């Protein structure tokens, strides 16, 4: 704890279902009623999302809770450094855990579930019990009331190493087109594309970005997804951009919400015309391997193959009906992807899963890093 005997806890994940905001709310309520911690803990919540109104209401009733909404990266870095713990109660299977990395880079330990790649950032002493996350969190607080909280070393993920790896990735390529669904900072995938773009430009590369640049909403994205199969104009739009910019390397990031098969078709045609073009496809989550990646909580729940039976297994009848069009789209994407496409994963545990769904693909592990100008020790 701090010298003034207070404990500052930060929550910086999006306020959406897959981040398990209900565990956050239960933890706040239980610590507020705790005989020891009720006067000692202050909570800061810095994010936005579907559960914003519920969190705002909680903050109005509870003086120990401060809700800031979505804030700039520089302010978030300050909050990391001012906090004693970053609380990540998400049961969602994190394929990397960039928020945890940023917090640790600022010197703040992370409490969460040890699974997915988050296990690399959460020591066993700070791991939540899946069967009783709230009480196990209380036990962690009690244990470290008078002890130093363990801090995971994240120096292997430093920006210098990442920049060198990025430079090597595009060693023989100068013109690069980054392709992803939305320009809006909906999540870390969009933020990552922006950072990659800035970094490549700093390395002297010419970079263009293809995405849906207008403001989006949840329902707008859903409607766009449903009618993706008819959106032939996306192929025309991307084809025009490809011919105009003539990139010698393409890096596709999120492609499941706007780009979809028509965009991939444009990429395939371009590569057939210019066969020396380097093509990468990122897996920021398991969206190309599972019907509802936001509900994947264990590695064992990722479908073992791209077969329809495996893709739809363990789903309810309604979910199977909803998931079947997505399976068709993914199969179409797999068919349209250039054979030379190299798949990029950000943590090694995803390698075998991507290989199971794309048996002949070459896979590269390319871990995230953090912006040292913003998040530094």
User: Which descriptor suits the 3D outline?
Assistant: globular
Low-confidence stretches at least 5 residues in length (pLDDT < 50)? none
Q: How much beta, percentage-wise?
A: 5-15%
By secondary-structure content and strand pairing, the structural class works out as: alpha/beta
Instruction: Please give the order of strands in the largest beta sheet.
Output: 7-6-8-9-10-11
Q: What is the gyration radius calculated from CA atoms?
A: 22 Å
The main sheet comes to: 6 strands, parallel
- How many E strands? 11
Order of helical and strand elements: EHEHEHEHEHHEHEHHEHEHHEHE
Proportion of residues in helical segments: 25-40%
Arithmetic mean of pLDDT: 92
Helix count, per DSSP?
Answer: 13
CA-CA gap between termini: 19 Å
């Amino acid at each position: 704890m701090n010298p003034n005997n207070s404990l500052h806890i930060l929550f910086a994940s999006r306020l959406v279902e897959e981040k398990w905001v209900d565990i956050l709310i239960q933890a706040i309520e239980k610590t507020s009623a705790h005989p020891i911690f009720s006067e000692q803990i202050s909570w800061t919540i810095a994010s936005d999302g579907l559960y914003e109104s519920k969190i705002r209401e909680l903050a109005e009733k509870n003086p120990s809770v401060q809700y800031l909404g979505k804030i700039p990266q520089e302010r978030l870095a300050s909050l990391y450094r001012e906090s004693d713990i970053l609380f990540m109660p998400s049961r969602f299977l994190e394929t990397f855990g960039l928020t945890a990395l940023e917090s640790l880079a600022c010197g703040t330990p992370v409490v969460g579930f040890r699974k997915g790649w988050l296990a690399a950032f959460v020591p066993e002493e700070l791991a939540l019990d899946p069967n009783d996350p709230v009480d196990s969190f209380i036990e962690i607080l009690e244990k470290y009331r008078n002890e130093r909280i363990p801090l995971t070393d994240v120096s292997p993920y430093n920006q210098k190493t990442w920049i060198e790896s990025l430079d090597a990735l595009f060693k023989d390529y100068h013109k690069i087109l980054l392709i992803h669904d939305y320009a809006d900072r909906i999540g870390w995938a969009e933020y990552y594309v922006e950072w990659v773009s800035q970094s490549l430009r700093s390395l002297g590369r010419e970079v263009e970005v293809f995405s849906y640049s207008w403001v989006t909403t949840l329902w707008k994205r859903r409607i766009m997804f449903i009618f993706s199969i008819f959106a032939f104009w996306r192929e025309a739009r991307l084809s025009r951009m490809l011919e105009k910019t003539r990139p010698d390397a393409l890096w596709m990031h999120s492609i499941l919400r706007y780009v979809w098969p028509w965009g991939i078709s444009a990429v395939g045609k371009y590569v057939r015309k210019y066969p020396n073009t380097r093509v990468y496809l990122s897996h920021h989550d398991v969206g190309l391997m599972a019907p509802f990646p936001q509900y994947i909580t264990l590695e064992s729940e990722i479908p073992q193959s791209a077969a329809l039976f495996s893709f739809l297994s363990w789903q309810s009848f309604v979910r199977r009906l909803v998931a079947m069009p997505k399976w068709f789209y993914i199969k179409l994407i797999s068919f349209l992807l250039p054979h030379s496409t190299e798949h990029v994963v950000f943590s090694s545990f995803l390698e075998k899963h991507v290989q199971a769904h794309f048996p002949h693909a070459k896979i590269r592990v390319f871990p995230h890093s953090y912006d040292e100008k913003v998040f530094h020790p």
